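Reading a protein record of the kind used here takes only a little practice. The integers have meaning only within a learned vocabulary of local backbone shapes. With that in mind, consider the following protein and its fold in token form:
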Amino acid sequence: MINQNNNIHKTAILEDGCIIGNNVTIGAFCIIGKNVKIGNNTTIASHTIIEGNTTIGENNKIFSHCSLGTIPQDLKFSKEDEKKVELIIGNNNTIREHALFNTGTIGGGNKTIIGDNNLFMGYTHIAHDCIIKNNSIFANVATLAGHVEIEDNVVVGGLTPIHQFCKIGRFAMIAGGSVVTQDIPPFCLAQGNRTTLRGLNLTGLRRNLENRDDINEIKKAYTNIFESDNSIIDSAKNLIDKINNKYVLELANFVINSKRGISFNRKKSK
């Protein structure tokens, strides 16, 4: 079904069964598969392929030569799995040239899910079963392996791969050229190969948290967890028992529940 008021180039191929909303632009030589749904006011530039069970929301800007909804780069994936897996993209995302987003897998929850208001720069790869929330930036050639979770307001630098099953907390910022193999807690800066915590993303916090007392509490919590002589788990549990600040509790609970662990350099006592 194709609604009215669309601008579809004559060389674009839209397979029977696809659903195209209102005021959608589809450029030259695009291919839109039969199980694809595209929301209102979305623009798709030339030579883009969208296939599989892919749902794209409204007001997205998709640049040329992207591949969205293709099958996962997973050797366990079979032809029979294709009907059961999805790629779901929310609203107001910008997806730049040569981005590659895969569907989910049967063993990983069936869905790759992307939220709203994200920027994916050129050559980004979002692999199977990733969950990306809102308002994040992925610089050129940021690549996410399968099952990665990204919370809100994250910045991932260019040429940065993230290992499968890693989780990145809110307002985290990862330097370009890093290699992420473990979890990155919320509010933190991380850098290196392999990535290590480098402190707090204070610039991001100051831009987004109105109460400076909250930022001070996060600073104290970071010092308590990562710069004390106690284990980070014990320190985090101690904060949960004593502190009632929601940001401190978010940081502490992330540390306690981390499955891949957290790499950090403990400051040596003078």
